[in-house]
Each structure stands twice: as structure tokens, then as C-alpha cells.
Amino acid sequence: MIDATTNTIHVHRDPVGGRYRSITPWTAQDVVMPAFAPAEFALRLADLDLGG
Question: Please, what is the Cα angle at 13 between 37 and 43, to 5 degrees?
């Protein structure tokens, strides 16, 4: 989930019983790596042209 107000990504992982056991906030400068996809899908919000 991307919080456009704070420019933060909240990564939800390890779903169990309709809830996530892990919710980690990442700043725009952090490289967010996928858990189950190739590393080529990694991203940083700071690298995206979000028009701001």
C-alpha cells in the first residue's frame, strides 16, 4: 500500500487468518524488494515520476 501523503510504502506480508503478521513501512529512499518475484521488480518511490 502506498501512502501518498507521507510518501511511504507499507509492505504487507505473511497473511494468516485474514490478517498480516508483518506490515513494514518503507521510505521513498528505500529499495523495496519483492518476496516472491524476481529482483527486477524492486522499486524506490523516489525513482518514480509521481508528479510531485
Answer: 45
